[in-house]
Amino acid sequence: MHSVRLASGALLGLTLACGAKTTEMATAPATASSGSGDGGTAAVAAAGASSVGGVAVGAVASDARLSSGCGKPPPDGQVKTVPGSRTGYNEFHVTETGATLGADVPADAGPRQFFVRVPVDYDANRAYRVVYIGQGCGAYGGGKTLTYPLFSEAEGGSEQAVYVGISVPDNDANPGCYDNNSGAESQEWEAFELIHGFVESHYCVDNNRIYVAGYSTGSWLANMWGCYFAGTPSPPLDQPDLDAGRQERKFAPHWAIRGHLGVTGALPPNQPVPCNGPAAGFWIHDKLDLQSLIATNIAALNLSLQSNGCVGDYENGPKQPWAPAEQIPGLQGESCQEYTGCPAEVAKKYPLVFCTTNATVTHSDGAGLAIPAFTQFMNLLDASP
């Protein structure tokens, strides 16, 4: 186990509109240190490119944005990864301060647990996609054991990524689940900044390939982050951003979620809007899910369609069958629809796919469907600029 304290830097005065309320704020680019040394910084090789999901995203790839952890060895004590196994996840903590998009919540301050797993052949000079994975409601510490094994190639996953399992908060904000009911005052906004600040400064990841995936409350988290942390990192904001009411983000203004993926989740009714730009989205939801009604996830799709500048909605938007679903048992036929009424450049980089199942998943994690579908979706995104 590693304890991590994030050091503060020079403060930046920023503002963020949360609905009708504007909050003054200060934040800083996250830096991290751990009890064990990180071995210093080495120059990233300028020649050669590596492949993530069959796509060149190495040091010379024009579409890769190398993290500050590239060229550094992983933290001391990194557990050796066993392919196809959860062995390889290392435990870390960051310290949340209780800062939110609204008023601070002192009760939410404290350590936040997460686990990082790298490929067995991890190369510190190669920019890997990074996938944050949320668990379902359950025991604290589930970031390692209760999250999708997206690394499992036997189940249709991929070993070639950095996976970060995020445990639910160990406080009373929403016991056993992520803090997905507190709106602007959720601790999850600060959590992403702190956790990604640590990951990107200690591991070599592609900051243009940041994904979040989850089941149930983890899918709520994916919808939350996929909206708030969407869009090209700022500054600068262009005129369409300003016209849409977007301002610089309080948290993680220089990183963006490329895509969010979830099973049987929901859009929190008090989600801060507008979203901060476009993001790719992939949803699986069962018509017979009585714990998290499909309408609540359809709301997330409809918000993404609006944020991506698309026409229509879940029922009426132009769409076509998502071709990879034909290779995934349980998703064949026309259960997975890709929405096509979006601007061409946005659709290429930020596609939106909704899979509607019927008594196949109900309120289970649907891992047999989710792991190959999520992996195929991220591979396709990695193949686009």
Report on this model:
By secondary structure, this protein is of the alpha/beta class. It has a single domain, classed as Alpha/Beta hydrolase fold, catalytic domain (Rossmann fold, 3-Layer(aba) Sandwich), CATH 3.40.50.1820. The chain is 19% helix and 23% strand. It has 7 helices and 16 strands. It has helices at residues 142-145, 188-202, 217-228, 239-243, 294-307, 344-349, 367-382, and strands at residues 4-7, 12-18, 21-27, 31-34, 51-52, 55-56, 90-96, 110-117, 128-134, 162-166, 205-215, 259-263, 280-286, 319-321, 336-339, 352-357. A 10-stranded mixed sheet has the order 7-8-10-9-11-12-13-16-15-14, with helices on both faces. A two-stranded antiparallel ribbon has the order 1-4. A hairpin with a 2-residue loop joins strand 2 (12-18) and strand 3 (21-27). The longest helix is centred in the last third of the chain and has 16 residues, at 367-382. Residues 1-62 have low confidence and may be disordered.
Proportion of residues in helical segments: 10-25%
What is the level-2 CATH architecture name?
3-Layer(aba) Sandwich
Largest sheet: 10 strands, mixed
- Give the CATH topology: Rossmann fold
Q: Could you tell me the mean pLDDT?
A: 84
* Level-1 CATH class name: Alpha Beta
Identify low-pLDDT runs. Answer: 1-62
Question: What is the distance, rounded to the nearest whole angstrom, between the alpha carbons of the first and last residues?
Answer: 37 Å
Strand content: 15-25%
* Strand line-up in the sheet with most strands: 7-8-10-9-11-12-13-16-15-14
Oligomer: single chain
Number of strand segments: 16
The domain count comes to 1
- By secondary-structure content and strand pairing, the structural class works out as alpha/beta
Question: Could you tell me the radius of gyration in angstroms?
Answer: 19 Å
